[in-house]
Amino acid sequence: MTNKFTQFFKPLHKTRLTDAERAAMRADFIAYMRAHPYMRTRAENPLQTIAFFLFKKPVAIALCLSLVIFSAGSVVYAANDALPGETLYTIKVDVNEEFSSAFLSREKKARFEIERAARRIQEATELALQNRLTSKTARMIETRIEKHAQTISELAANISAEGDVKASADIYTKFQATLAANEEIFTSVVEEESIEGTQTLVATIEMIEEAAKSETTNAVITLVQNNEVQEDELAELAEEAKVEVEQVSFTVEQTIEAAPSTTSPIARKLAAVQTIKEEGERRLEKGDVKESVALFQEAKTRAKEAEAFIKTSEKQPSLAARKPEQTAPTPKLIENATNLDTPAETPSTPQKTQQTQNTPQETTAATPAEPPQSTQTTINQSRFNTSPKIISYPSIPIGAPQNEIRFIWEAFDPENDTLQWEIWWGDMGEREAKAICESQSCSRISASHAFEDQGLYTVRVRVDDGKGKSDGYSFTIDIRATETSSTNDEISVKEQTSAQELIAPSDGKEREKITPIRERERRR
Amino acid sequence: MKSHAEWEKKFTDAYNAYSDALFRFCFFRVFDREKAKEFVQDTFTRGWDYVRRGNNIKNIRAFLYTTARNIIIDEARKRNRMKTEPIENYENVLCENPKQTLNAEIEIACDELKKLDEPYREAVTMRFIDGFSPKEIAAFLGETENVVSVRIHRGVAKLRALLHRTFTP
């Protein structure tokens, strides 16, 4: 039966098309296909597309994810060029930049924050060039710059607390240089009075810059007043700073050689760097290692400032069109520049203005009056003038009440201007300070003061070149009744003692360290 | 997304591979060689038009068999539109008036197969002539594999009984 069943189906399997039939039919079908070519795509059919997303879920999910990632990437990329007031600006600042800094080490993060602060000023410059800088955006930029400055201050303080004072000082040097370069470009393109809030923004930048400068000075003071640091180590530090100055100067020189016509302000900055460096070398040869450290540090800051100026100019090519205006200032700029002759009125020295108002009779300047100058001369000098730099910091003694203490300060000015000194003893009872010029251009002075009562006094020193540029620093002096200290001590750089040891309060209470940035915020 | 050349190659390959099988599939339902050839050609043409409309074919073999089956059903409907006979007996409708004389063996087979009820005949034909597995037949007919296996089993039993009756003197 099985055999019959098999035999039943066997002939049926042999049923097929003949070769001729198959060939003819296939030829017909191929002709049909070619007569009706395939053209449509699946995407043209919306129902097919829906079906694709319904039934090909993994592929669809992957596709959607890719689309989302691509879109997000595009937004993030596009946000990099956003300016304040634009929709994508928040993404740029609060997403892109925050994400970029999230995985950085403390030092790199501080450096990135410096870059962020520079970006904010560059954004303000760009907006000013496009006539889109409003008081609102200026205030917003100001707030963000302050936030960056605060972060930098905290990070640098942490780095310093970990023992890396040099790195901390380097951060402040870079911060100061970056701010100075960017602020210079910003003020060259914006008329301060034209926009409400611009003055405040410039003043804020300058205050932060001053604070950074003070921190750099503090770092130098910490180095030179530290008795544990031997003189040969200091000489080594000076050499290191010198090498760094030469390296940065070389980069700047190359840029100047590449485009000499557009870099005359930079060339002047570099010339000042060379002068300061040469003075540093001279002092080093002479054996004044501590002064040379301060001078090389200053040269390094200024070289970095020139470098930052070049970098900013490269980033903002639109500034190139405005550069001729820098060499031929508008009447408004002339007026501003003229005002630089009266430091109390200029916004570049707000701290000084405040101090002068607080203690109007505290200072004396035993310097000859400046000869009258023409307006044009003033402009050129103030625009390319270099600020003086205090290079010797007397050690801080523990004095006794009623005992006169003598200090000697020295500053260096690349233009060799006659310097004016201002000293606030921090002692409200004593409003008269006698400063005696000990050199021709008053670069070295001596001053004596007797504190009546015991306590901690903050002494502030400021040197001004009479052309709107100045330098200064402050320190705290401890006056103790029980402490035996020599009267009429001449405190100079030659007889320095440990600053940390000397400023320690006698009652054993730990004094809070107030950084200039924190102090500024406290004042605000 | 395939191009014209890719689709043409796919259909040409399918033609070479499945044209004989499709021909058998159609022939043992209509028992008319010319009609079966026409259905085969129609099957491929419809398949090509389906692709041209922007659709995709995942399993071309299953697609061609389904199309061929639908064509046969459509043809039966056309012939039966004036009658009240249910469409499930489409093979009987198509076998009514074969236009050509068949091979004697095949004619006998046709007669014997005609005696089977439609569900059993379809299952047996697809299993033993077209060579589908019960699983493939189940997918093809939209039934469960179990149902198909039962139909095959019963169809074979009935066919054996018929063959026994026919070939027993």
Describe this structure in words.
- The complex is a heterodimer of chains A (524) and B (169).
- Chain A has 524 residues and is of the alpha+beta class.
- Chain A is 58% helix and 10% strand.
- Chain A is built from 18 helices and 9 strands.
- In chain A, helix 7 (135-161) runs antiparallel to helix 8 (165-189) and helix 10 packs antiparallel against helix 11 (264-286).
- The radius of gyration of chain A is 35 Å and the shape is elongated.
- Residues 323-382 and 483-514 of chain A have low confidence and may be disordered.
- By secondary structure, chain B is an all-alpha fold.
- Chain B has 2 domains: 4-78, Orthogonal Bundle (Rna Polymerase Sigma Factor, Chain: A); 98-167, Arc Repressor Mutant, subunit A (Orthogonal Bundle).
- Chain B is built from 8 helices and no strands.
- Chain B has helices spanning 4-30, 33-52, 60-80, 90-95, 104-114, 118-128, 134-141, 145-167.
- The chains are: A alpha+beta (524), B mainly alpha (169).
- The interface between A and B is large, with 31 and 42 residues.
Sequence-ordered SSE layout with sheet pairings:
The complex is a heterodimer of chains A (about 525) and B (about 170).
Chain A: H1 2-13, H2 19-35, H3 46-55, H4 57-79, H5 89-102, H6 106-129, H7 135-161, H8 165-189, H9 198-224, H10 231-258, H11 264-286, H12 289-315, H13 323-327, H14 331-339, H15 350-358, H16 375-384, E1 389-392, E2 398-399, E3 404-412, E4 420-424, E5 434-437, E6 444-450, E7 455-464, E8 470-479, E9 490-491, H17 499-502, H18 516-523
Parallel strand pairs in A: 2-8, 3-9
Antiparallel strand pairs in A: 1-3, 3-6, 4-7, 5-6, 7-8
Chain B: H1 4-30, H2 33-52, H3 60-80, H4 90-95, H5 104-114, H6 118-128, H7 134-141, H8 145-167
